[in-house]
Write a structure and sequence with these properties.
- The complex is a heterodimer.
- By secondary structure, chain A is mostly helical.
- Chain A folds into 2 domains: 12-47; 48-79 and 96-105.
- Chain A has 5 helices and no strands.
- Chain A is flat and about 50 Å long.
- The model of chain B has no long low-confidence stretch (mean pLDDT 96).
- In chain B, helix 3 packs parallel to helix 4, helix 4 (114-129) packs parallel to helix 5 and helix 7 (198-208) packs across helix 8.
- Chain B is 41% helix and 15% strand.
- By secondary structure, chain B is an alpha/beta fold.
- In chain B, helix 5 (144-155) links the parallel strand 5 and strand 6 (166-168).
- Classes of the chains: A mainly alpha, B alpha/beta.
């Protein structure tokens, strides 16, 4: 089925005017988070799967094109479709642990 | 702007929230059965909860001139327990006849276990057999993609359940295309952190257009926002979208989806919506 997009009437410059400051703040929050981790334990960047994928996601932010968000969602997602044999925990943690994919094979 | 919030866990909310929602234009809510944040220990615990949804909550909402509808089912978070799930499902067909029950929901998966899929599939089969509308929860965060894929795979095995009668909720950028391309409705639930923000929801409307897309605030027991839909309206206005487009998303679309149930009544003054082409 063909869908009809509804582009915002805002011009590109108006979009920047409207959204720059709040996204500048988000950028600084991310930088502060990474600095905080480094002050706590710089080895987390390589040891914790969530921090590793976070770094991958930041690299994806720097790529060109309109699908950065979907790319990052895919980086964070469980790419498998095989059901779990039993419930391992109640909640999600925010990022897929690739080492689990090996265990499930 | 008048609106309908199709996914609102009002049992978690105070009457102050009902008042704020009414003041901001909410005409109706629909409340899917869900997890309370802790597991119930008996099937009877679910039956009491269903009574709260179908008996008590509509009366509480009515005090604020909000019409309350509901959905019943075994929620994904507790559906891995097959013994309790099967015991609860035995009661479901009779309860679906309730005057404010719009269908089966929210059903689906949490961690995508074999048991969760079995309970979900049982309920999809029940919806097909009893010609019910369905509201589906898709998993959180890293489990959403996998859960949405399995959700759609199961639904496709039930061609007697028309896609137009199924809402796959909690869609995000990486799942909305899959949902829409199979003819289902896609729900965007607006959360402060874990799902879609108002700005991202507007992005999705801009990319996909408004057809078969709903937005909701969820209003659950965790971090969530009872005024999320009015804030979405504000974000649409911030992008200079037309009032007609905004109304299409927050009022006309829920009427189109929920109105497939004969129990759904058009809010007073909106009878003209019944005559509009889909």
């Amino acid at each position: 089925m063909t869908r009809t997009p509804e582009r915002s009437p805002l011009s590109p410059t108006q979009l920047v005017d409207e959204y720059f400051v709040e996204n500048r703040n988000r950028l600084l929050e991310i930088a502060a988070f990474l600095d905080r981790l480094d002050r706590a334990d710089a080895s987390l960047a390589s040891d914790d799967f969530r921090v590793r994928v976070f770094a991958d996601a930041i690299r994806a932010l720097s790529t060109a094109g309109p699908r950065r968000l979907t790319h990052i969602q895919m980086l964070l997602s469980d790419p498998t479709t095989k059901p779990l044999a039993s419930l391992d925990r109640k909640g999600a943690v925010g990022a897929f642990d690739p080492s689990l994919a090996e265990i499930r094979r | 702007m008048k609106y309908i919030d199709h996914h609102a866990h009002m049992v978690s909310r105070t009457t102050d929230d009902y008042a704020q929602m009414a003041l901001s234009g909410c005409l109706a809510v629909s409340e899917p059965a869900f997890w309370a944040g802790w597991d119930r220990s008996t099937p009877e615990g679910f039956l009491d909860y269903f009574r709260q949804l179908t008996d008590f909550e509509p009366k509480r909402a009515a005090q604020y001139a909000i019409t309350h509808y509901n959905w019943l089912g075994m929620n994904p978070k507790e559906s891995d327990d097959r013994a309790i799930s099967l015991a609860v499902l035995k009661h479901l067909p009779a309860l679906l006849d309730g005057p404010t029950v719009l269908g089966i929901g929210e059903i689906g998966m949490n961690r995508v276990t074999q048991n969760e899929i079995a309970t979900y599939t049982d309920q999809v089969a029940m919806a097909a057999e009893f010609r019910q509308l369905v509201l589906i929860h898709t998993p959180h965060l890293e489990d959403k993609l996998k859960g949405t894929r399995v959700t759609v795979d199961v639904l496709r095995r039930y061609p007697s359940l028309p896609p137009s009668r199924v809402l796959v909720d909690h869609a995000e950028e990486h799942t909305i295309g899959l949902i829409l391309e199979h003819g289902f409705w896609a729900g965007l639930t607006l959360y402060p952190q874990t799902k879609v923000s108002a700005a991202r929801a507007v992005d999705l409307i801009e990319q996909y257009g408004p057809d078969r897309i709903l937005v909701a605030g969820a209003c659950d027991w965790g971090p969530s926002e009872p005024l999320a839909v009015p804030k979405f309206v504000m974000e649409m206005r911030r992008r200079r979208h037309s009032e007609a487009l905004i109304e299409r998303v927050v009022l006309e679309n829920p009427i189109r989806f929920l109105g497939q149930s004969p129990k759904f009544r058009l809010p007073a003054g909106l009878e003209a919506f019944a005559a509009r082409p889909a």
